[in-house]
Amino acid sequence: MRSRSTALLSIAAVSGLLLAGCASTAEPEPTSTSAASSVVESSVSEPAAAGERVGADGTELEVWSSIVPDESAAAVLDEPEAGNQWVTVNVAQWVTDEDLSDVDVAPVLRSTEDESFSAEAVSQRSVDVPMTPEKSYTFVWSFQVPEALVDAETLVLCVGSGDEGCSSLAAE
Fold first, then answer.
1. Model pLDDT for residues 2-31, shown as the tens digit of each residue
2. CA 141 to CA 46: how far, in whole Å?
3. What is the pTM assigned to this prediction?
């Protein structure tokens, strides 16, 4: 008798859960938002905060984290040139054009302290990653930076060599 009543209670509980699920309102379908609508206007002199999406010329990025300076990068990339240190940035990146890879859209590191400074990104990967438009990719990029400029507060990551689409490495 006891097993029969336990079985009936179990069936009733499952039925109640199923009925409750049917009666609840479903979550609305996610809406697609244009990538451009979430891009923050920014420049080298007025960078967006880390965590905000920036972009220019069909390339976008969002700084997720950085290591300033990154002494562990030398294990993968060798020692930096004399007087320099490695700075590593973890970013999300998007493209709008076809047939691009990660190295085609590698970001550039700039400094608000020294307008003439510009560092090309060095990948810690041994292969190029083909990118699909409107898909998010996470990449780790390293840069050689003169020791005098190694400061997360003054370093700015830009989508290219221009003055647009720049993000601070420091969280605000």
1. 444 444 434 444 344 333 333 333 333 333
2. 22
3. 0.77
